[in-house]
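call fold(seq) -> tokens
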Amino acid sequence: MAKRTNYLQLALDLRRGSWLIDDPEPLLPVVNAFLTKQSIPVVQLDDFQVSEFQLSSGGEARKSKGTQDPHVVVIPIHGTMTKYETCESYGTVDIAERMAEYIADSSVIGFVLDFDSGGGAANSVPPLVNAIKQARAAGKPVIAHCDACFSAAYWTASQCDAVFMDNEQSEVGSIGAFAQFLDDREDKRTGFKVITVYAPQSTEKNRAYREALDGKPEALQQELKELVDLFHAAVISGRPRLQKEAPGVLSGGKFGVDRAVELGLADGRASLQQCVENVFIRTEYK
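ret:
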């Protein structure tokens, strides 16, 4: 059954959440519509589609459906990542729940996460990372197949058994975070100002946001630093060959296939089918 996209949740997340995304500008119209009380369109979200692959007698991965023979499940991570259903894509909570069902299925031997994403909300990362850990703990390899894989998407991909890039135009990276918000203290249409009063006991409440509005970004920078410290630690742990001191690697650079492999951000170039076959090989020789 198709589901309705939750634009209200998206607007709230954009307004108050922390984001790890390569290009946030396409999302800003939703925030603006929410803040200015304009109507936000509601669209239908198609059913979440996964693909299942079996290995042919010739050793090639071929699509199958509803099989009870050993097979690999390909899960799409496309578009902006959010924790809940929104932004015309499924939330990572829903994707993780679906993965848990497949992990419990003895006929599923492993997964390929198919990334084509600029990243998204910081809180979208833990559900998928936990699902990846559960799959690997169950002895089911998880491979990342990447076209565009940036920021929060790369954080997730780095926790897989291997990262492969699809083609000569594929890119990975953009490891970092930034804050972007609207100063809505005055409504330019009406001239009305928003007056906010805090209790005297609440000096730390929203302090970073309030100080940034007043031209003092240090507290907000510290919050972002703590988030990026977690990001760096996860990537360094997940990618043992990472050349973390190389320019751009941990400071937001984006890299094509050859350079990404050289820097330890990726393990090579492989098509989706080859990634599926890699899972079968890992299962056979684990």
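Residues 1-5, 40-46 have pLDDT under 50 and may be disordered.
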